[in-house]
Amino acid sequence: MHRVLGDRRAVAILLGPALLVYTLVMLVPIGWSLGYSFTKGNSITGFSWAGFANFQRLADDPAVHDALWFTVKYAVVVTVGQVAAGYALALLYTFYLKKASALVRTLVFFPVVLPTVAVGLLFQKLFQVAPQTGPVNSLLELVGLHSVDWFGSAGSSFWVLILMDIWRSMGFYAVLLFAGLVDIPDEVLESARLDGASGLRLIRHIVLPLSFPVLMSSAIFSINGTLKVFDSIVALTNGGPGNGTTPLTLSMFQTSFTYGEYGYGSTIAVLLTVLCLLVTLVVFRVSRRDLTKG
User: Fold this and answer.
1) Is residue 50 within 8 Å of residue 40, measured between CB atoms?
2) Angle subtended at Cα 24 by Cα 235 and Cα 252, rounded to the nearest 5 degrees
3) What is the pTM of this model?
């Protein structure tokens, strides 16, 4: 193995195809989009040089500011919810259900494989107020409360989106974190129990530090996905009411393909790319902390 890795020609042959595909699929589109951000126009009217006008417009555009705030807020809440719910389920699988967890894992994972449009329609029916009262509002009326127009305001729509995405994806993170928990040696857990650690103390001082790498991997995977959320929003609210649930991805799509402003849409894409890179760097920096100390 050392001889192979020491041979530059062998390394080039092994890594070359993957690097070529990555360059064509990822780096070239990023560079292309960056180039478009310095232009204005579209494929019909043609493109012309705009310099930094799009970036100046971006800095002064309140709609983009609202979309940025919604994106960050949505990403933080959903990431915390996904990882926390997934970790709680993984602990349930590992320490309580154990070998009997296979059926529960399958049932909880099932929403992951459902089409996003189907899940969006399901939640629309669950929370609708007209023309027919949905199950959620029916339950509220049953206990003496008034029906709520869940999609009539940005605040309530936001929490329905949060609930939908956490429910849909927590099974995936539960399986991912479960794979990390089962790798913890039984000898370590038994030694901790003999020393008096149990319950929350066992989880806090033994399980959490040993599962921290896979926990951080889940957080990185989740936050990068939620920052780029698109299909869930379109399926459930389409950015409404108004622009109350419009993330950067939908704003970029509408700017580019609805209004034909490819240059400004590419500028929003650059903002989203920088945001993803910054968040990933912050998470990596936090992950250097050693939880086994202190």
Assistant:
1) yes
2) 35
3) 0.89
